[in-house]
Here is the input.
Amino acid sequence: MRVLMIGDIMGKPGRDIVSSLLPRLREERQIDLVIANGENTAGGRGLTESTAHELLDSGIDVITSGNHIWDNKEILPFLDSHLPILRPINYPVGVAGRGYLITRDVMVVNLMARTFMASLDCPFRAMDSLLSSLDPKPSIILVDFHGEATSEKVAMAWYLDGRVSALVGTHTHVATADTRVFPKGTAYVTDLGMTGPYNSVIGSDKDAVLKRFLTQIPVTLPVATGPCQFNSVLIDIDPTNGRAKSIVRVDTHPGKE
Ligand code: FE2
Here is the structure.
């Protein structure tokens, strides 16, 4: 089983590079399943029904999210629909949406960290209770762990090693170079990165971000324009035991061969 996990897709530029690259990538690399974080897909803030469909039509099978999934209220009714959209599982009971789904015998889980983030339920215990509730347990389990702190993400990888096939970080929009398979078979990277405008501050217009830093007053941050980068990882998993065999980065940016 070969899975591609794509870093946070930022606005229309991000959607456009996905639709232009992904169909060929899927075919060339013989990818079975594509997962992408889509919480910044609609104008850089949240997700809408139409942008979700755009991603699904481009070849993405499951859309994960994080704290920004609530930014565009239009998506709320669709979080409980047939559309394959996830929000972090460790929100309080009763919040709209779902935190995991199973497609083609693969379970995809969306989880959120707490360090420098909202005070959600403990993500470690949320995974314990999810994994112990599964009977039978799917052999392949993939987790998008949306969080700020590197330490919390690495700690979670040790905690889940051997219990999930892959744990990948999202949210910081900066791709990390620490892809590895942990000793008991969990593939890991601290952050997938960002799919969107290259000449930007993590996807937003650099001049607007600088104005915010220089003045300390609220400034609307539009999605930047111009050439785009694409950040992802490709993970090979043994379907007989759910152990990851390899994880490699698949990235492109302007000027890269
Ligand atoms: Fe986020």
